[in-house]
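Troubleshooting: if your tokenizer reports a length mismatch, compare your output against this known-good record of 374 residues.
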Amino acid sequence: MQSCSPAGGGAWRCRAALLVLMLACSALPAAAGERPELYTNQSYVEDATRTEALPLNDPKAMFAFVLGSLPDRVKVYPTENYYYFSFVNRHSRYAGNIRLDVVDRARGKVHFAYYRDLAEWKDEDPIVHVILGKEQGVQVEKLDPLRYRISYAGKSVVFELNDLSHIKPPAGIIGADEVYLGPIFDESAIRFFLVYDRKLKIFHYVLDETIEVADQFKRAASSDRILIGQRTGFAFYVDKELKRKILIGVFEANARINNYFDGPFDQLPDNFIKGEELRTAILAVEPSLKGQIDRYGISPGGEDRYMISPYRYYRTEADLMVFDTCATSKELARALYEACFVFDGDDEGNGTLRALTVQASAVKKRSRVQRKHH
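Known-good structure output:
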């Protein structure tokens, strides 16, 4: 297992993955026809120049501050049940989250974390992460399957988790060998369908277009099948075999600082995973993990989780052209087409496409057979 870090990568990732996000101005979405919120430099300057100090060394006091700053009811949009916030303390920006983890909330526990904001130009600061429950005076009450009340220090807040149980992929976007694992609502406000291909043993994040997509797309200069979100930086490939767009790229700088747009790897459909479907898929890809993960892909103790990130961390449009080159190759076996959209790489964007690896392996096997018959 790899060690936990906010910008960690590899096959495992920290279950308590922490993302740098701005505090939502409203707990619920704007009503239809409501004017957009205006953000001003004045408010930023006044936050940055405040001299009051928060009790950063006292996690319970900080939890009281955060909970006490919230309205009586909030909406948790991301599907791994993180409620993100940020604040400025003594001229530095901090970020964190309250999380109703899919396992621990049933035990009356809530995760709470905060840390100094990440940036590419500086080292990471320590993360404060605690699990709070009755022993610490925190009450976590289940009101409904997706509605919980958290109470502490005289303040109660109802957390409404995002109910996507009615969301189903439309006809024509799931392949014959694929399994739909569940809906994802990313903290970027982009929705996905998590899909697993049993034959190729690969995962895809397919864009959910059953609602208006919260982004505007620009076609890449070198391929009209590559679309790049102008708000998120998410890059998609327009599948020529099925009516869908597959996530192929996440801008590397966003992944480095774990902001809104670091990719959907940390927002799996926890509340909607059916039985053993996810674990079965993971074990088909990584048989060595048998007995080491639960049905959510989480390790014993809950510190690590299997990471599903088949996309590339890219810096320029040119980094995305490998997907198009593979998908349009006349030498590629047609059965490997969907594997063109799985990039086996590292956090720096180095690596290769699964389709090319599989095809190269098949060629080597054929060569050995031919030599054997001579």
